[in-house]
Amino acid sequence: MGKLQRLPVSVVNQIAAGEVIERPASVVKELLENSLDAAATRIEVSIEEGGRDLIRVWDNGSGISAEDLPLAVAPHATSKLESADDLFRVKTFGFRGEALASIASVSHLRLQSRPAGHEAGSQIEVRGSEVGPVIACGCPEGTAVEVRNLFFNTPVRRRFLKATQTEMGHIVEAFTRIVLAQPKLAMQLRHNDKVLFDLPVSDQLLERLGLFFGRELAEKLIWIESNVNGHRLWGYAADPSQSRSNARTQYIFVNGRYVRDRSLSHALSEAYRGLLMVGRYPVAFLFFEVPSEEVDVNVHPTKIEVRFRDPQQQFRQLLATLRQKFLASDLTARLEISSTPSPAESAESVSDPSAPSLDDFFSRAGTDSQASVAPPLQPAAGNQSSTTLPPFQLQAPAPLPRTAPLSFLPPQSAPALALSVPSAVSPRDESTNSGQPFNGSTVQSPPTSPTRDSPPSTHPLAALQIHNSYIIVETPDGLMLIDQHALHERVLYEEIRSRVLTGNLESQRLLVPEIIELSASEVALVTDNCAVLEQLGINVEPFGGTSIALHTYPAMLANLPADRMFRDIVDTLTAGSQTPTRRDLLDSLLHMISCKAAIKAGQRLTPEEIQSLVAQHHLAQDSHHCPHGRPTALVFSKSELEKQFKRT
Ligand code: ADP
Ligand code: MG
Questions:
Q1: What contacts 253, CB < 8 A, 6 or more positions away?
Q2: pTM, full prediction
Q3: CA 16 – ligand 2 centroid, Å
Q4: Average of pLDDT values for 563-574?
Q5: Mean pLDDT of 579-589
Q6: Where is pLDDT greater, at 279 or 355?
Q7: I need a labelling partner for 338 at 20 to 30 A (CA). Which of 245, 260, 394, 436 fits?
C-alpha cells in the first residue's frame, strides 16, 4: 500500500482556516466583507468576550436562499466568480469561496438568512466538520452569521488568543478598515452589549476620521486628489505636526479594500522626507480607484496584498500628488497656547468665526500658494498690509563678501551668489563672529524704500534677532518666530541637493592632501562609497594601511577643519542602516553637510543676513521644516494674540 492519502475535507478546511482565520478579528473582517458584497446598507456586529464566545454579524443585504445555504458553508463555493477570467477583474471583496467553510471548520457556526421578498427565513448550523440540516426559521430580511466558541477544536490557536481587550482592539481595527471605506453604510459595533460605535450613514469621510482618530488629527488633514490615466487617487494626508511613532495610522485602500503595500508606503515616506523627524511616520488615509483588471487581488489568502499591473504608476502618482499639495500648502507650525481655558472660553473659541478653521486652511492651501509667510518681502505680491519689513533685500540682495564664512542665498535669482566660497581653506577664526558682525560685511540699518505707497513704519521690530538664535518677523497675519539654524539648514539643504543633482556643487582642492587615519572597516566603507562622496565633491584615495588621502571637499564646508569634516562624513556613513540605498546615503550626507554649514544657534547676524534669511523662508521648498523634520518657524496668528490679550 502506498504511503500517500488524501486528507479528509475537515482537515483541508482546518488548514485553509489556519491561513485565513488567525484570530476573532479575521472572522469579523470576512463576515463584514460578505455583507458588503451582499449590498447591505446596514450592518450590526455584536461581540462577546473579545470574540472568544460570540461573533455575530447581521446585515440587511440580499440574503441567501434555503437551497443555497449548504453551499454557502461548503468550501470553494461562491456566487462571486463564474470563470477563471473573472479572477482577473474581481469587483467583489470575496471570490475564493472559503471564508464561511473555514470559519465553520473551527467554530460553532449558525447561518440564518432571508432573501428580500421571501416569506420566511432558513438556517443551517455547522459544528467543526458536522453540517446540520437546513431548517425554516423566523428572521428579518438579510443575513445573520453567529460564530461561537472559535477555535474550540484547535486548542493551540485558542490558547494563543490574547486578552479580551487585545482581541477587541484587533476587531475594532478590522471594523475601522471597513468603516472608513464605506461611509455610506450605517454600521454598529457592540461588545458585551455595550455599543462602541453606532455610525449613521454619512457622506463625510472626515467626520468618521474625527470619530476614530480624534478631532485634533481630523483638523490637520489635507485633502489630496488626482487622476492619472483613469486611476483616481483621493483622500487625506496629515500635516507633518501629526506624525506617529509607527506606520499604523496609514490606511491605503484599493477599490475600497484595505491593503498593505510596501511600495505605496514607501511613496508616502518619500513624500514626507524632510518633513518628519527620524523615526516618525506620516499619517494618511488614501483611496485608489483603479480599473479592476489592473489590479490582482488574488495574491494572499486574506487579500490584504494586491499586485498592480504597473506598480510604478501608483508609486509616482502618490508621490507627485502629495508633493504638489505640500508645496502649495502652508505647513508652518502654528503655535497654540496650551493653557487650559475655562469651559466658557473654550465654547467661545469654538464659535469664534475669526479663528482659523479647517475650511479656511484648505481653501488657502488650495487657492493661494503665496499666502504662506513673509509677504512683506514680496512687493510684487501687492500685499495691502502696513507691515514694515524693509524691502531693500528684494530689490538688491546685499551680496555677502567673498570671505564670508557663511552663505546666504539671495532671495530670488543670481545663483552665482548663492554659495559664497571662502577663499581660504583654513578654518575661520571663531572669534570674528561671536557677537560680532561677520568679517567684512558692513552693518547698516536697512534703508527704507521711497517708492512704497504706504509710508514705511519706523517700527523697529519688523525682523529682529533674539537670543542670537531666533528671528521674530511681523507678518500680515500675526508674527512668525524663525529658528535661524533650522531654516538656514533647510535652505542650504535644498541648494546643495539641487547642485548635486545638476553636478554643480563647488568643491575645494587642498594644496596638500590631508591624510586621515581611519579604522580598517571605515576605510572599506569609504572606498565602497567613493562614488557617492565624489558627487558631493569629496575626492579620496587609499593612502596605504588604514589611511586615506583627502584631495577635495565641499567648498561650503571650508569653515571646518578638513579632518574634522571628514570624520563627520565617515560617522554619517557608519550610522546608516546596514544596507542603505545610495539615495539614502546621499541624503544623510546632504543633511549632515547642510547642518554643519548652516549658521548656528547663538550666532549673531547682521541686519542684511537677517533679511536675507527671512526672505528664504518662502522660497525654499518645504521651508517650514528643517531637513531633519524639525519646524523652522512657528506662527502666532493675530487672532490668537487678540484672544490671549482678551481683545475679542
Ligand atoms: P466568498 O465570499 O469568497 O464567495 P464565503 O465563504 O465568504 O466566500 O461565502 C460563500 C458564499 O455565501 C458567498 O459567495 C455568498 O454567495 C454567500 N454569502 C455569504 N455571506 C453572505 C451574506 N452576508 N449575504 C448574502 N450572501 C452571503
Ligand atoms: Mg467572503
A1: 180, 181, 259, 286, 287, 288
A2: 0.64
A3: 13
A4: 83
A5: 76
A6: 279
A7: 245
